[in-house]
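INTERNAL AUDIT FORM
Audit reference: QA-55
Scope: verify that the stored structure record matches its stored sequence.
Auditor: D.O.
Record contents follow.
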Amino acid sequence: MRNILTLIILLLITKTAFADTVHLTSLSWPPYSDKNIKEQGASVAVAKAAFKAMGHELIVDFYPWSRAVKLVNTKSSKYVGYFPEYYYETNDFNFSDPMGNGPLALIQNKSKPINFNDLSDLKGLKLGVVQDYINTPELDKMIADKEVNAKAALSDSVNIKKVASKRLDMAVIDVNVFNFLLSSDKSLKKFENKVELNKNLLANKKLYIAFRGDEVGKKWQKIYNSGLKKLDVDVIMTKYLTSK
């Protein structure tokens, strides 16, 4: 009996010794991430499951997007990464393996539909984007080169209202975010019959965790990617996004 108790104690000590708490930042971007929704969002559910599969606990703190990114690279930060993010070229972060997809689209006013087939069709239009969000490399280059008249807002909800009131011709938005906001944001209720998604997608974007570019970030990137391989990410995402 004593030997069994000793073995149990040793196993518990070993498990505790190797289990760490991981800290990441995120933003309010439902249904992917938000502190006030089920499981804190679909992307958070995937991330927590992946770390749990490797014996670790994930804690996510939510901030405005710009701060969520900045905090990760703050000196002595406890945060090892931020998410969900689209991939982009950078030396500051190492991206995880994909943790799901986010279809990126354009919203338009129902009474003023836009014939959109190519990015060149956006020239001459007032296009809404969200401040500091990455869109697609091609679109972001056109915006930087002032080929597209882009207006930055603080949130997707603001852009929905602007398109509904015809202050914008179109706005960039994730399809799942658009559907979630229209069904849950009471301030958008009076606009839901005035806006719609354009039938053509901008892109089907993959979602990632952006880990710090240092050795600590690389360590957790490797652990997280190993955890992802133990999951069926598509099943988790689909189950979450289709549940009521």
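Auditor finding: record pair retrieved intact. The chain has eight helices and eleven strands.
Action required: none
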